[in-house]
From TrEMBL:
Limits of the ChsH2 rubredoxin-like zinc ribbon domain: 18-43
Protein name: DNA-binding protein
GO molecular function, a single term: DNA binding
Cross-referenced InterPro entries: ChsH2_C, ChsH2_Znr, NA-bd_OB-fold, Thioester_dehydratase-like
Swiss-Prot/TrEMBL keywords: DNA-binding
Domain ChsH2 C-terminal OB-fold: 47-112
Keyword DNA-binding in record: yes
Pfam families xref list: OB_ChsH2_C (PF01796), zf-ChsH2 (PF12172)
Superkingdom of the organism of origin: Bacteria
Length: 135
């Protein structure tokens, strides 16, 4: 599968996760991966897979298409801040754009969704969060 940037992702036993970093000195998490800590300015960063599940911290629905190179068909889409437990809050697209179906505190999980189609007709995927499945 082609992604917008392979450096954003890491494979885990549970599936693809966001590739983050954690400071070995102060414990701060970052996304995307960084070589230096924005909290303590240390350089002891460790690559870590971030949690694949979290809670919707805040959200909005944008009533316009993303800037190019987006080539999808949606004219509006959900965007939110997702709190990954014990790690950080990450900004991400949401798989849901209906305000009636979004609520602060709802459990969400990481998914890969088509972002655009490249010049060869291949779908290029990005990350988003959707309502967590109940297994």
């Amino acid at each position: 599968m082609r992604t917008v940037d392979d450096s954003l992702f890491i494979e885990t036993a549970e599936g693809v996760a966001l590739r983050g970093s954690r400071c070995a000195d102060c414990g701060a998490y970052t996304f995307p991966y960084q070589g230096g800590c924005p909290r303590c300015t240390g350089d002891s960063m460790i690559e870590v897979p971030l949690s694949r599940t979290g809670t919707l911290w805040s959200w909005t629905v944008q009533g316009f298409r993303p800037k190019p190179p987006y080539t999808g068909t949606a004219d509006s889409y959900g965007v939110g801040y997702v709190e990954l437990p014990g790690e950080l809050i990450v900004e991400a697209r949401l798989t849901e754009a209906d305000p009636e179906r979004l609520r602060i505190g709802m459990p969400v999980e990481l998914v890969l969704v088509p972002f655009r189609t490249d010049e060869s007709g291949v779908d290029v995927h990005t990350f988003a969060f959707g309502e967590a499945r109940h297994d």
